[in-house]
Amino acid sequence: MIIERQEQVTDAVLSAMAETADPRLKEIMEALVRHLHAFAREVRLTEPEWEKAIEYAVGLGQFTNDTHNEAVLASDAVGLSTLVCLLNNGNGGNTETAAALLGPFWRMHSPRTENGGSILRSETPGATLVASCLVRDGKGQPIAGAEVDVWQASPIGMYENQDESQADMNLRGKFVTGADGRFAFTSVKPAGYPVPTHGVVGRMLEAQNRHPYRPAHIHFLIYKPGFKTLITQVFVDDDKHLESDAVFGVTRSLIGDFARDGDGYTLDYTFVMEPGEAVLPVPPIK
Ligand code: BEZ
Ligand code: FE
Questions:
Q1: CB of 114 within 8 A of CB of 178?
Q2: Which one of 152, 161, 172, 195 would you pick to mutate in the ligand 1 pocket, going by the greatest count of ligand atoms within 8 A of its CB?
Q3: pLDDT at 286 (0 to 100)
Q4: Atom of ligand 1 minimally distant from the CA of 195
Q5: Which ligand places an atom closest to the C-alpha of 102?
Q6: From CA 220, how far away is CA 226, in angstroms rounded?
Q7: C-alpha of residue 42 to centroid of ligand 1, in Å
Q8: Any idea which ligand is nearest the CA of 105?
Q9: Is the Cβ–Cβ distance between 138 and 99 less than 8 Å?
Q10: What residue spans define the domains of the chain?
Q11: Architecture of the domain spanning 97-273
Q12: Mean per-residue pLDDT for 135-159?
């Protein structure tokens, strides 16, 4: 179609895409174009602003490499990752869910650790943490034989692969739940840390006067055939950034009860798995 006025551009694009064979792709792309065009009209996007947006999109690629994905970070920092997670868990976004962002630091092949064992692989100063966890289904039945990956940052807010002073696989472990659905481990209380700010996302956070911190948390990935793989994080309840996580990962049910016990802490937490397909994500790092 020959375009005569700005109002016609949207219809021109939608009709050009009308023959898309895959119905889901058609639905997604049509909605994307409609919303994108409506957005440009709403803010009356100027040409210099559009050029800046393109520069930003190019930056997402330029700052992405084998160990860092700036596009995922951008999605995290505008809440899209959490929104997609919440839309796809908790009974299609209708009920509370135990799911949360995977984040960029999961590694496959965490060291298999006996139930109750330590995930410290090198000396790691900090307050001790004893975690006792239950994995159950929605009806309250324990799930035995679930594989649980645990990973966390150190008490100075660094994952082992960011910190030369930590041994390979420090603060990572793989557990298997017992017949009672329980697993336990000892560790140190993690600290919060900033998300990477060396790229375009860092520039965005700065321009928006936002801090880059995530509240302290422990990641869990729970795998058991017959259940949707549960990827989640449990947050330390005394962290000052709980209400302002740079990537919007904190939901009420994910705030753990880190109870003081002498010089250390205990955590008791229950994970509820939903029925579904047990698929593992692609690891962001090796
Ligand atoms: C993390 O929790 O590991 C994380 C999540 C999103 C962005 C950066 C880090
Ligand atoms: Fe993390």
A1: no
A2: 195
A3: 66
A4: 8
A5: 1
A6: 18
A7: 32
A8: 1
A9: no
A10: 6-74, 97-273
A11: Sandwich (2.60)
A12: 97
